[in-house]
Amino acid sequence: MPSSPVPAQVLVVDDEPDLRTLYELTLLREGYRVDAAGSLAEAWAQLESKKFDAVITDMRLPDGQGLELLHRMLARQRTERCIVMTAYGSAENAVEALKAGAFDYLTKPVDLKQFRTVVASAIQETGGTGARPRTAPGIAKQPLTAAADRPPNSQLALERLVGNSPSMRDVKERIAKVARSMAPVLVRGESGTGKELVARAVHACSHRSEGPFVAVNCSAIPESLLEAEFFGAKKGSYTGAAADREGYFQAARGGTLFLDEIGDLPLAMQSKLLRAIQERSVRALGSTQEDIVDVRIVSATHRDLAADVHAGLFRQDLYYRLNVIEILVPPLRERREDLPELCQALLTRIAQESGMPTPVLSQAICTQLIGHPLTGNVRELENLLHRAVALYDGEELQVDFAPTQLPVREADSSSPAPSSLPLTSASAPLALPDDLQAFLDQQEREILVRALHESGFNRTAAAQRLGLSLRQIRYRIARLAIAAPGDEANGDAA
Ligand SMILES: Nc1ncnc2c1ncn2[C@@H]1O[C@H](COP(=O)(O)OP(=O)(O)OP(=O)(O)O)[C@@H](O)[C@H]1O
């Protein structure tokens, strides 16, 4: 990739001459142009004399706090990305800086590899470039305030979030605003309100949008596999690890890691996740090498995490780290005015997926839908319309408001499979498998394939039949590499 003729310009603010020199040399070696200041006053004088792409400031300076510089830059609508360096262990400062609008933070003593990664990320987001640019030069060096300044897919991602009610407009504005930094985002809302769509929009509106979006459903991964799934595993590091495999953190490098149902993460794994966020590095199982974390974390939950913290179910320090910026997605009952537009958009999508013209929704049905409780939010609405389209006879679209019939199961609710499946027989005990995991995988695969076939490869319907959420079935389909029509449209990792 050719170098830009104009290298990015960075201002380093630190009162320790040795550290300043170290940072300067590191950045110069990366091909940036570097200026340095030893105090707030000096830094401000530099800022008034010219524009930079990024400002890296220590928190404690002889004439004040690095945060003051950040506040002042934001008040003057300066376009530079600001990276704040905080003392080790002072999570409050890091979180405070991110909440105040810092692009990112670094913990002292600064790891130079991390330093380079974070600065490169900030420069990339402003469109500046070092001698080894990671993106094509020429992106406007401006803050992402106006729609025109956002990445090309951002508008599309925001439009996918159908709804023009004041609360949805607030959500979209917040997405566009928070997309600009690396600050972790926690998306809260009831099940089915569209939290994953919000997370995707945050990614699409950020300049990480060209990187991967890796969605992980924390509640669907068996506890014993969590560490390997998150951080990766070397061949042979645990039974069944037949080859080296990347974890979600590595797969999301340069992009966004979406941790859905974060409240369901067991406490032991919460500690490991916190460590990964604090240390900004992860180590694959069985590996001696640390991988730098270069991901933006967006998490989501339908639970009241603050209450979980009080109840001792969720680590307070992790909550604090993940909840730097919160986006609350309102339930559908609080934005019923969105229903006509939502019905139209969902019907169009469902009909397109089924390769048929979009049926017309009568006023009467629309009114009925508006009066329906829809406690399952947009997902319930989507399911109602899915069923309606499946039964559509070309005349008038009918919506069946009766609750979905789930398959009858054996009296013993712990039985994992419907009684009709000839998987095991009560009278003839199975020979013990010599590879339990492979055996269970095979059983699971057969059940999933059958449910998918019987539901015409409609994953929502198949999930419902098996008592799984859509996310759970997606995870299982991906884990067992079951190919289904339409897979290519879905880039999820989980
Ligand atoms: N505003 C919206 N516009 C269009 N479709 C939507 C909207 N909100 C949700 N949906 C659709 O509803 C379904 C559920 O959305 P999503 O998976 O994002 O919800 P969620 O809040 O993450 O649910 P859960 O908490 O159960 O994981 C998806 O198919 C999504 O495309």
Automatic annotation (TrEMBL):
SUPFAM superfamilies: CheY-like (SSF52172), Homeodomain-like (SSF46689), P-loop containing nucleoside triphosphate hydrolases (SSF52540). One of its GO terms (molecular function) is sequence-specific DNA binding. The modification 4-aspartylphosphate is found at D58. SMART domains: AAA (SM00382), REC (SM00448). Residues 161-390 form the Sigma-54 factor interaction domain. InterPro entries: AAA+_ATPase, AAA_lid_NorR, CheY-like_superfamily, Homeodomain-like_sf, HTH_Fis, P-loop_NTPase, Sig_transdc_resp-reg_receiver, Sigma_54_int. Residues 9-123 form the Response regulatory domain. Coiled coil: none annotated. Keywords: ATP-binding, Nucleotide-binding, Phosphoprotein, Transcription, Transcription regulation. GO terms for biological process: phosphorelay signal transduction system; regulation of DNA-templated transcription. This is Response regulator. It comes from Caenimonas koreensis DSM 17982.
